[in-house]
């Protein structure tokens, strides 16, 4: 896409990335890609909000020049120093060497550490303003959403919030950047998966930031990833508030690992029993086949969680250990949780599950079901009882 006008003097100069397969080297983005949104205000003073990932810097600079021609860039506002938003800065400085870099006191040490840039900076703090002429920018600090230097920028003239990673999403918009020109339903899962993997760990800090931002009049939300919300900014604001509060809907995620099908049999038994007990939404995930970002996304959505894994040399199946690590990080409070294991001779998975229960402070609904080998009749009865208890929790 070319540069896109958002308001008379405000433009999107971002890029879509279909080359990167793992966002942060972790989370699959593959065919849907991701956008790195950057913005330009063409006023008496020219200000750019953020750069883009360096692999796309030429396209980014071309868009800037298509708007301002031979004018200089006066300010570069760095809302966030993560390299997907900052690594284009070196090339941008080579084109506009007199540009002043605007950030907060935690921005500039990172600027030096990443790019060895120290001079020509302007430090701003909570509520500070910067006049561009017609437009005035105001800055709000949002520490640990999701890095310590994170902040957002508000255009008081056009009521535009440049919200950094807040209100972001996986999935690059195709053909148009605007909410009213896209199928919002197709962004629901990418929004939640982005929140769960990127922001979920700091949900408490995110809620504080949202409380702060609710105090200003917002006409348009321009995040660093995903759609620009010009027609219904309340939609994404409402979504983020609910996710930050960890609001869930009735339904159960069953996440399991299985080497030879025994734990899988237990998981399938639970799924059937949950349905028989009236649970309409049941999602079954094999942790060996599905990236944990998709599993965590649905865990963020649904109230119930059942996890099962076999022992693996006296410990837990490694793919389940990876999921437990992420869930310990983001927390699964406000969930009802149950566990089942499988072993051949000495067990071990239950130790890791118990450590997770202790560290994550999860709300466990029943004793762990421990199966030796393939589930027998008594094991099936125990699994059915676990499913029944979970169904009762979903009905409450």
Automatic annotation (TrEMBL):
The signal peptide, as residue positions, is: none
What's one Pfam family here? Flavodoxin_1
The residues forming a coiled coil are none
Instruction: Please indicate which superkingdom the organism of origin belongs to.
Output: Bacteria
Q: Please report the stretch or stretches of sequence annotated as the Flavodoxin-like domain.
A: 252-391
Molecular function via GO:
electron transfer activity; FMN binding; metal ion binding; oxidoreductase activity, acting on NAD(P)H
Family to which this protein belongs: In the N-terminal section; belongs to the zinc metallo-hydrolase group 3 family.
In Swiss-Prot or TrEMBL terms, this protein is called Flavodoxin
Organism annotation: Acetobacterium bakii
């Amino acid at each position: 896409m070319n540069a896109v006008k958002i308001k008379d003097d405000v433009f999107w100069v971002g890029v879509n990335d279909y080359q990167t397969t793992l966002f942060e080297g972790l989370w699959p983005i593959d065919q849907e890609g991701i956008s790195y949104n950057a913005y330009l205000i063409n006023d008496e003073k020219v200000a750019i909000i953020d750069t883009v990932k360096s692999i796309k810097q030429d396209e980014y600079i071309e868009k800037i020049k298509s708007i301002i021609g031979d004018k200089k860039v006066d300010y570069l506002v760095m809302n966030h120093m993560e390299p997907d938003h900052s690594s284009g800065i070196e090339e941008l400085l080579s084109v506009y060497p007199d540009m002043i870099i605007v950030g907060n006191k935690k921005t500039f040490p990172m600027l030096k550490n990443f790019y060895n840039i120290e001079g020509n900076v302007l430090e701003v703090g909570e509520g500070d303003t910067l006049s561009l002429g017609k437009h005035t920018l105001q800055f709000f600090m949002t520490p640990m959403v999701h890095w310590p230097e994170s902040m957002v920028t508000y255009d008081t003239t056009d009521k535009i919030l440049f919200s950094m990673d807040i209100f972001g999403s996986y999935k690059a918009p195709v053909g148009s950047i605007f909410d009213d020109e896209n199928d919002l339903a197709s962004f629901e899962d990418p929004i939640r998966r982005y929140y769960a993997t990127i922001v979920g760990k700091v949900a408490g800090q995110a809620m504080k930031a949202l409380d702060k931002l609710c105090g200003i009049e917002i006409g348009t939300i321009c995040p660093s990833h995903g759609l620009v919300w010009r027609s219904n900014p309340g939609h994404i604001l409402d979504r983020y508030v609910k996710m930050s509060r960890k609001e869930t809907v009735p339904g159960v995620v069953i996440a399991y690992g299985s080497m030879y099908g025994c734990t899988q049999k237990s998981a399938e038994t639970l799924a059937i029993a949950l349905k028989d007990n009236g649970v309409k939404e049941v999602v079954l995930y094999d942790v060996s086949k599905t990236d944990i970002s998709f599993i965590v996304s649905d865990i963020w959505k649904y109230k119930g969680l059942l996890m099962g894994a076999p022992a693996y040399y006296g410990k837990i199946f490694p793919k389940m250990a990876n999921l437990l690590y992420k869930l310990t990080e983001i927390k699964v409070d406000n969930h009802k949780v149950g566990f089942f294991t499988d072993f051949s001779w000495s067990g071990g998975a239950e130790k890791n599950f118990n450590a997770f229960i202790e560290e994550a402070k999860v709300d466990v609904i029943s004793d762990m079901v421990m199966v030796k080998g393939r589930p027998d009749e008594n094991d099936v009865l125990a699994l059915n009882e676990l499913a029944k208890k979970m169904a009762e929790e979903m009905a409450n």
